[in-house]
Amino acid sequence: MQKFNQIFGEGKHPIRTFFAPGRVNLIGDHIDYNGGMVLPAAIHLGISAQVRERDDQIIRMRSNISEKRIEIDLTKAVEYNESAGWGNYPMGVIRLLQMTKMPIKGVDILFDSTLPVGSGLSSSAAIEVLTGYVLMTLAGYEVDRVAMALLCQKAENEFVGVNCGIMDQFAVAMGKAQHAIQLNCQTLDYQHIPFNIEGFKIVIMNSNKERELAASAYNERRASCEKALALIREKHDVPNLCEAEFPMIMECVKDPVLLSRARHVWWENQYVHEAIEALQDGDWQTLGESMDASHLSLTNDYEVSCDELDFLVDAARSVTGCVGARMTGAGFGGCVVALVHEEAINDFAEYVKKQYHKSTNLDTDIYVCEIVNGVEER
Ligand code: ADP
Ligand code: MG
Fold first, then answer.
1. Most buried by CB count within 10 Å: which residue of 60, 126, 173, 232?
2. pTM of the full predicted structure?
3. Is residue 144 part of a domain?
4. Domain range for 275
5. Has residue 174 been placed in a domain?
6. Which ligand does the CA of 153 lie closest to?
7. Cα 1 to averaged position of ligand 2 atoms, centre (Å)
8. Ligand 1 atom at shortest distance from the alpha carbon of 119
9. pLDDT digits (tens, 9 = 90+) for 217-275
């Protein structure tokens, strides 16, 4: 409260606290845009917002990651502004809420984050969904979480200009403690699956490698998948690449690069289904094997891994008690997710940190995850 008043001055309304989690995708990467299934979970690392209403039409925002203070006049249409930097993420959400004619209140917001930024744990979706939830709640709306996730995705796509799928915003809005979310990105059908694999924890390792190539490679991979699908559709009636049968892919896609991209998509979708079944059965062995297989496919066929991620996966898998590990997210940096027995975690962390530093000269941050609820007031 003291910090809040230091930044924004005194005010007569109470300060309320909200929290939005980040998310980790346990399995199913680069298949959201191919009609496949993903399996994310909301994690205890996230962004909190301290919020105090104002009696005018001004929104002021500050964040712990930047000195830049954002100020918005709600009587005008919010516009994208390069120099606002991080502010464009919440501003995009505010703009879309303006367009829906929701009566937004003036407010001061102080963001504070435990979530690494730009590491593939969805800090962008967290700040978007947090902003949307705060403003809708203050306006007195019963929040429709799926609609809000879609609105935030639209803000990132159209206002910020990042062509992301729906998984991140959905997981941040719809997370449930101790559950993973099985999500069909095309239909938005979803199911919460209890994550209770006796004795095992989800462990995240941040490679701390810049994801320079990620954006261009992402667009390139998407284009390859579209091409492969178009070739298949010349002969077969299929809605998306995940629903093409494997023999159709072999028959129609002859270019070796396109073929390996399509092969990843097909197999990754199988691994997700395998993993979901294993999770439901509490079968850690099969879950771990699916994760391992997924990483190989992302490395060899989809070619979106990098040395740093491969080092982390190898180091993780060489520790007894780690039963599966894979890169997670778009690739070329970001994080690795592993399934590790809780009794092995201390040794695991020590070993992986040491090995990673030795081979890359980078330091990894290791997080033992709790799966938490989606965005909420705390
Ligand atoms: P991620 O994988 O973390 O979602 P992105 O590149 O999609 O990576 O989004 C990162 C951007 O989101 C940051 O550059 C910043 O603009 C914004 N952002 C994330 N966390 C915060 C925060 N705590 N405060 C302000 N802006 C944030
Ligand atoms: Mg993001």
1. 126
2. 0.96
3. yes
4. 200-369
5. yes
6. 2
7. 29
8. 2
9. 888 999 999 999 999 999 999 999 999 999 999 999 999 999 999 999 999 999 999 99
